[in-house]
Amino acid sequence: MAHVGSGAAEEEDCFEDAYDRIPAASQMDLHTAIQETQCALNLVLNDKFSEALDLLRPWWKDSMYHALGYSSILVMQATMTFEHRDIQAAMSTIKEALQTCQRFRKKNSVVGSLSSLISKQSKLQEEEMHAEICYAECLLQKATLTFVQDENMISFIKGGIKIRTSYQIYKDCQNLLNVNQDLAGQSDAFRQFEGGVKLGIGSFNLMLSLLPQRILRLLEFIGFSGNRGFGLSQLREGASSHSLRSILCALTLLFYNTYVSLILGTGEGNLVEAEALLEPYQQKYPKGSIILFYSARISTLRGNFEKARARYEECIGSQQEWRQIHHLCYWELMWNHSYQQEWQQAYHYAHLLCQESRWSKAIYVYQKAAILSMMSEDEVKRTGENLVELFRQVEGLKQRLAGKSIPTEKFAVRKSRRYKAAVPVLLVVPALEMMYVWNGFSIVGKRADSTEALLVTIETAEEQLRGDPNPSEFHPDDSCLVQMLKGLCLKHLGRLLQAELCFTQVLSSETRIRYDHYLIPFTLYELGLLYKLQGDLAKATTCIENAKTNYKDYSMESRLHFRIHAALSSLRGSPVGTP
């Protein structure tokens, strides 16, 4: 048997260092499999994706960890490219990976019964424990691909069943872990198993805790539970351990603090924790694109847009093998320039996304048109784009998931219909409206200069609407949008009473709104956050509960319900973003 290193010091090095050349193993046991998979993960984090696959390929049909690692890379690639051939290749691989894991599982697949055998600690029993964790992770990957591959409800249900099975396996493994805590320090294999449980249980609890209460109650009925505090603690413990999945726990927490808490929460990600999690990996993988990307994202959330841009550009230059990582950077660069109203540069990245990325053509084209709408006629002419035609393309580009439209695409389609008429009715500050949709005002709010500049643009639009000699049927909606955005700027500038006046002006116009009905519940939510900032928690709760209870069937309703859930949790004394 060929091990990658010998002796305790060398063994630790295998987990700490990224190898460029890995000696091939002549036979495979659990310990060697975990070592080789760790080395493959190091290669991925150093942007050596093909080399990682080459390392895993010889054993992926015979070793559960090689199967898990190999399929993970292909699934990641498929979800990035959205290319049919990549999705098919990944799906085929994940099916084989499940079969490989299945061969190592206890024959009756009742994980709980393993606890009666654990005291013997034979090699077979260790493999059975790890097979359960690897099988659960592969099931989650297959569920992800099922959602991506097909657009019908049956596929959606199949994916849901796989997720439930995976969750149940994790729960059984957690029970096994709890009754054998005395073994935790004795065996490296047990420590690796513990890392897998913490990653799975922590991720499930954290993500389920984000769901609005009405959805969570339904899921609890069929055996799910979502405890945010417990989920975070499990992931933190997993991130601080020395196991294969430590970096995966850290990346899950990074994603939560830099994206999930912003888009589906109140915009209060724990950036101190994010920086502390990232710091050791910046030392280990200073040129790794994934690490550079998160470093740039944290700079963005700090309001340091210039530093963020430099990091995103460094990330783009760090590797050429997976151009989809470039697309993530283009999206972020588009917004970084938008926050500072550098519309020409923002247009450049929106245009690149339209040309190269397959994720959501409807959103990209709408975003490009929205950015062009912020530019002068001469600037638009110089791009060679036809603004009206771009908006008219959006509806034909929307996708469906489980037979339903994607909410953000649906919103873009509905807004772009104003350009279908023979004489289009122009949208008012559409790029700033989309900035709000992605909770970008909470990012711009970190920079007083950028917020002041946005306020000037919004007040200019306000004056134009007020002086319009021939107001269209959309005039009340446009005026309310402008007032809500103005209120947000004023709030972030500390002018809270003026912000409150803007929000109450929108609410007083409720009966005049004809199309953008989303503005009322979203404004109630924002007014609630403003009252919270002023220290009036009772008023804050009343406003947010009003938005939750008394409005339905409006654009991006589910997104607001996620944010409402986060805000109410925070008001009850359990802040979502800053645990």
Give the low-confidence spans: 1-21, 109-124, 574-579
Strand order of the largest sheet: 1-2
Q: Summarize the biggest pleated sheet.
A: 2 strands, antiparallel
- Radius of gyration computed on alpha carbons: 25 Å
Order of helices and strands: HHHHHHHHHHHHHHHHHHHEEHHHHHHHHH
Fraction of residues in helix: 55-70%
Binned strand content: under 5%
General description of the model:
- The protein has helices spanning 7-16, 30-45, 49-56, 64-81, 84-104, 123-149, 153-178, 188-209, 213-221, 228-240, 246-263, 271-284, 289-301, 305-318, 323-339, 343-356, 361-373, 377-383, 387-393, 407-416, 430-437, 441-444, 448-466, 475-492, 496-508, 519-534, 537-549, 557-571, and strands at residues 400-401, 404-405.
- By secondary structure, it is mostly helical.
Give me a quick take on this structure.
The protein is mainly α. The chain is built from 28 helices and 2 strands.
